[in-house]
């Protein structure tokens, strides 16, 4: 397979856009990615478009990519519409990578776009239900002990993440899977601090430790500042062969690993998806976790970020909390995580999130991250999970990039 | 890129399955494809799953592949959920082909599955609306002159196909785009005749010329027997590298071309998608239309099949009607088209259709087509379109296979 680079990366600011539709958001991201690359749109040979719930929110299904790209000048090229719940955009990127690495195309677009916010908030939350096996939705709600009222007020995934962190007992208000409320609060403080330096983040206000702990209670130990928000947005990347980049004088990080796996479902004897994906990614890149200089990870809820440290082998099992307490994963630390603000502060328009992560890592490796720039970074990783089935997330993508 | 073969192909009978869900249909197709190949399921390294409207019919979005494959033993491998309206399954196959041709995997599954039939028929028809740009749905309905009642009684696509055949004037009841009702009726007679020999076809009764003309009127010149029916079903193919096939002693047709394009949208200066896709496919395969021995094409309405003959260059422009009248495209003719029964008789569960076509061509090239076997066939083509945007279908896939 051929070597592949990302030569253009852009995103809208994530946020709640009452007056903008999917097309408008997509157009901004695509236009800016093309500008960022300094490329002619005519060079783009195919487009891979991730979106998760437009069908349920807006009624637009089946040709979402063609619809959002309709006025860009891209129609005519192959357009593939991709879904993998919160990992939709990473999956789109992965397909773009394969297509270029295969030799079929020299230059393709990966796009993620989502509009979650709706005047009827319960509609947005209902859309998340489509990311589990709906045949067992009632059973899942019952097992999690959620009332009908609660189902209207928060995403099922807040409860699911807690149950995954601590599968064998109900979440206490103090600690889940060995992670204390205080440690969770630190993750939120860090990610909001990072987000405060990111013009593309949904939330750009720092929050204090006390504010996180005292913010509205959601479920178990989680307060609202420990949960990723509803939001809208788009993110895009231009993926090209190394040979094409060289020929056109384009610069950008190399894709050293692009790995997608699905969850273990009901088979508890299989390793969870994140560990399998990470192992494959390190192997593909020919490096280890010790070589990673920064990472964007799937902090859908604050405690998840801490277990992800362990699952990605950034530390020994059980040592995750130390990384946040010792400020290893803060900007200025040895391995900054979620410099974009992560899902908590940059935001989580689910079908766009994976490319939001990739955009951040690409910008960091290009030295374009402004106030939140990680010094001397050479290798970055993204980890993006989506959906839930059985005892695991349903989809998991890990990518590694190097400058 | 590596050479690729299809070593397993299977489908459920297409039809209306009140008591079967998506998972049940998918499991039958996957199980039988694995059996057909004589392969161990453990060899499958990734799955590409096409579905178009489950989100709107059943509420299951975003992780449809993981859900339908949950109990097959496949969970753990990468699963990509793909949409491209009626071309979803061809798109899934195309992605599987790229992944194997690239060298990333040796053996992958492509699956298409759809459940369209619903006690509330209007719900099924509404789902088709999601295959146009819904921002202009009202405008499209108005332009086509459809009443609210008509919108509940038939798919928007029946009207859209007529408008594409004859863009500049309203469809008469006698002729559309130079094709007479009688010629359309012949297509229906042929495809139902073919379907009568296919155990996997939704409709297995022959129909007479008079029956077609006298069946319930739908719109313009179309009677109900000239329109593809609502239906459910699943179809699957196992795609492997030639080297893997050789090593494992597996047999199956080679993929000589796998082409996906999107429509021209609002740009009438661009050629329509079908011509562009066909040209690319012939080039990729290094052959011409004269080399094709059989084809499965997208006869969503009977007259479309005749224009497709011309668009695929099976004849000179304007000569399409001759092929049906002179029985060239009937079983026993020089170039049998839709030996499966086509969308009209085999059925059209939209997200499964593309693989239904591929299964038929694979079986034909393997000599497994029973009573409807095309003698001495060596090269087969499939053509599958999906969705509608501007002046064209939204997605178009053309594949060429050889034994």
Major sheet description of chain A = 5 strands, mixed
What's the assembly state of these chains?
homodimer
Whole-number mean pLDDT of chain A: 96
Backbone structural class of chain A: alpha/beta
CATH class assignment of chain A: Alpha Beta
| Greatest interface (CB-CB under 8 A), with counts per chain | A-B, 65 and 65 residues
Give me the Rg of chain A, rounded. Answer: 19 Å
Query: Please, what is the CATH homologous superfamily of chain A?
Result: Thiolase/Chalcone synthase
Strand proportion of chain A, as a percent range, falls in 15-25%
Q: What's the architecture of chain A in CATH terms?
A: 3-Layer(aba) Sandwich
**What coarse outline of chain A follows from CA principal-axis ratios?**
globular
What do these coordinates show?
Two copies of one chain form a homodimer. Chain A is an alpha/beta fold and 403 residues long. Chain A has one domain (4-118, 231-402): Thiolase/Chalcone synthase (Peroxisomal Thiolase, Chain A, domain 1). Chain A has 16 helices and 13 strands. Chain A has helices at residues 22-37, 54-57, 64-69, 88-101, 121-129, 137-144, 148-153, 156-165, 181-195, 209-214, 242-248, 273-285, 302-311, 320-325, 342-345, 350-365; strands at 4-11, 46-50, 79-83, 107-115, 175-176, 179-180, 217-219, 222-223, 232-241, 254-262, 294-296, 379-389, 392-402. In chain A, the strands form four sheets. Chain A has a five-stranded mixed beta sheet with strand order 1-9-4-2-3, with helices on both faces. A four-stranded mixed beta sheet of chain A has the order 10-13-12-11, with helices on both faces. The longest helix of chain A has 16 residues, at 22-37. Chain A is globular. Chain A starts with a strand and ends with a strand. The model of chain A has no long low-confidence stretch (mean pLDDT 96). Chains A and B meet through helix 3, strand 3, helix 4, strand 10 and strand 12 of A and helix 3, strand 3, helix 4, strand 10 and strand 12 of B.
């Amino acid at each position: 397979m051929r070597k592949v680079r990302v030569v253009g990366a852009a995103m809208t600011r994530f946020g709640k856009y009452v007056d903008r539709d999917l097309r408008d958001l997509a157009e901004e991201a695509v236009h800016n990615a093309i500008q960022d690359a300094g490329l002619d749109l005519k060079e783009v040979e195919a487009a891979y478009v991730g979106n998760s719930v437009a069908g349920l929110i807006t009624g637009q299904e089946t040709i979402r990519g063609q619809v959002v790209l309709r006025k860009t000048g891209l129609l005519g090229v192959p357009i593939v519409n991709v879904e993998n719940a919160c990992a939709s955009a990473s999956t789109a990127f992965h397909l773009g990578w394969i297509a270029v690495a295969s030799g079929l195309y020299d230059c393709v677009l990966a796009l993620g776009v989502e509009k979650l916010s709706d005047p009827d908030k319960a509609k947005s939350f209902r859309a998340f239900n489509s990311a589990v096996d709906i045949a067992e939705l009632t059973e899942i709600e019952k097992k999690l002990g959620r009332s009908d009222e609660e189902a209207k007020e928060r995403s099922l995934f807040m409860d699911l993440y807690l149950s995954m962190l601590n599968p064998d007992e109900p979440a206490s208000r103090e600690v889940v899977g060995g992670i204390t409320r205080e440690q969770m609060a630190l993750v939120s403080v860090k990610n909001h601090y990072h987000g405060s330096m990111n013009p593309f983040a949904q939330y750009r206000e720092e929050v204090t430790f006390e504010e996180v702990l005292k913010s509205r209670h959601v479920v178990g130990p989680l307060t609202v500042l420990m949960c990723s928000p509803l939001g809208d947005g788009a993110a895009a990347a231009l993926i090209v062969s190394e040979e094409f980049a060289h020929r056109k004088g384009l610069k950008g990080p190399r894709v050293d690993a692009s790995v997608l796996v699905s969850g273990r479902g009901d088979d508890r004897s299989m390793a969870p998806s994140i560990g399998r994906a990470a192992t494959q990614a390190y192997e593909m890149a020919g490096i280890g976790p010790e070589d990673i200089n920064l990472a964007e990870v799937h902090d859908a809820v604050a405690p998840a970020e801490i277990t992800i440290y362990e699952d990605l082998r950034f530390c020994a099992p059980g040592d995750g909390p130390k990384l946040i307490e010792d400020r290893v994963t803060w900007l200025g630390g040895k391995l900054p995580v979620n410099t974009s603000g992560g899902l908590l502060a940059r935001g989580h328009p689910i079908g766009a999130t994976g490319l939001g992560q990739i955009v951040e890592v690409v910008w960091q490796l290009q030295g374009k991250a402004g106030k939140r720039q990680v010094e001397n970074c050479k290798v970055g990783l993204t980890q993006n999970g989506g959906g839930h089935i059985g005892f695991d997330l349903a989809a998991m993508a890990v990518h590694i990039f190097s400058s």
